[in-house]
Design brief:
The protein is of the alpha/beta class. It has helices spanning 14-40, 68-79, 103-116, 143-154; strands spanning 50-55, 58-65, 86-93, 125-130, 133-140, 161-164, 167-168.
Length: 171
């Protein structure tokens, strides 16, 4: 059934303006709550370097952080704020010279971390590194195993990002 003209408030009507003001104030509340969550997180040493915007429950994070683990923490914090339905991650990782590692060192540390984790099947996951960006490849039997591999390497020093290309082949 088609809507009649009077079913919706006119664009300039007081009712429509009040609805818009409520949405704007709710977006500001979400932004403040996300900002507070980042400030309380000890994993993020410079939360003021993260710009936060919110529209209808979608939060956008922009700015620069010093490691992939800080980026991951900021996105995770934002996702756990009440009223947040989606997070767009536009954060950049810029590693200071003192924290930089050679790709071969990062790969070695990543392979060692995977080897120590009993949830990740031995020899089924490989790691390639280019400019600090890790790419995980291989095949595992369960999504939990792929997730475990990702978490194992996420906090390694020198990592700027991770692409998880591990295929889950259900037995």
């Amino acid at each position: 059934m088609p809507y009649r003209n009077n079913d919706f408030p006119a664009p300039g009507s007081p009712h429509n303006q009040l609805r818009k003001e409520k949405l704007v104030s709710y977006d500001v509340k979400i932004e403040d709550d996300v900002r507070g969550a980042l400030a309380r997180d000890r994993r993020i040493p410079s939360p003021d370097e993260v710009a936060i915007s919110s529209v209808d429950g979608t939060v956008v994070l922009r700015g620069t952080v010093g490691s992939f683990s800080q980026r991951y923490a900021a996105v995770s914090d934002a996702r756990h704020v009440e009223g947040v339905y989606d997070v767009e991650d536009h954060l950049q990782v810029r590693i200071l010279d003192a924290d930089r590692r050679a790709d071969a060192d990062i790969r070695g540390a990543a392979l060692e971390a995977l080897h120590r984790d009993t949830e990740v099947p031995e020899g089924l996951v490989d790691v390639n590194v280019s400019d600090g960006w890790l790419t995980l490849t291989g095949e595992v039997g369960w999504q939990d195993q792929s997730n475990a591999a990702y978490y194992d390497v996420a906090n390694l020093q020198g990592v700027t990002g991770i692409t998880n290309e591990i295929k889950v082949i259900t037995p």
